[in-house]
Write a sequence for this structure.
């Protein structure tokens, strides 16, 4: 099937399964390349914590409140770390001091595109950087090969904020309540960071259905 398909990934920059799902998705795409599939990937905004204060909160206290105890939070972190190792990712939960508000990170992705997605995940989950902080985000943009001064200027204003909030509101309106979620040509297929062979099969089947319908 020699054509390019639009693949939207609805994601949050502080969702560990979104980072794992990204790498599983990339493996799924590689599995489909010999069959003539090509994908144009777009990252779309979703906030797991839409009511998070702009400055974020201390992660330990937030996680203990969310999951009932710090011990339970650590158990979940261990599960995430194990899944991450399967795709070559190293989570450093010991370095993660804050749970940030992610509006600014989503604005940066809207501005900088795919180039900043992996650096954002790596900065938060591996280096423990505060990706709710505008100065940190501008630095990440520079590390991704973009103009850090231009990124800082964009973040200092409100560019993209209304659009990010509108997109997220629409995803919630249509019933998306978990990330990562994947949509092919605008059709939501599934949520979750499923293994790459199952993900590839889901993309293949959906593409076949859409091609026949066209």
């Amino acid at each position: 099937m020699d054509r390019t398909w639009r693949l939207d990934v609805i994601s949050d920059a502080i969702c560990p399964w979104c980072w794992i799902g990204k790498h599983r998705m990339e493996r799924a795409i590689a599995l489909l390349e010999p069959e003539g599939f090509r994908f144009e990937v777009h990252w779309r905004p979703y906030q797991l914590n839409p009511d998070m204060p702009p400055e974020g909160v201390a992660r330990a206290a937030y996680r203990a409140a969310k999951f009932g105890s710090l011990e339970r939070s650590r158990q979940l972190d261990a599960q995430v770390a194990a899944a991450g190792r399967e795709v070559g990712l190293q989570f450093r939960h010991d370095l993660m001091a804050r749970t940030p508000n992610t509006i600014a990170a989503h604005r940066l992705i809207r501005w900088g595109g795919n180039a900043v997605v992996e650096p954002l995940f790596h900065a938060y989950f591996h280096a423990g950087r505060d990706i709710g902080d505008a100065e940190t985000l501008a630095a990440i943009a520079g590390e991704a090969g973009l103009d850090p001064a231009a990124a800082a200027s964009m973040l200092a204003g409100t560019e993209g904020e209304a659009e990010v909030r509108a997109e997220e509101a629409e995803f919630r309106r249509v019933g998306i309540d978990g990330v990562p979620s994947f949509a092919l040509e605008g059709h939501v297929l599934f949520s979750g960071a499923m293994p790459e062979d199952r993900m590839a099969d889901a993309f293949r089947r959906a593409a076949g259905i859409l091609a026949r319908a066209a």
Remarks:
- The chain has a mean pLDDT of 97.
- The first strand starts at residue 3 and ends at 11.
- Strands lie at 3-11, 37-45, 57-58, 98-99, 181-184, 187-191.
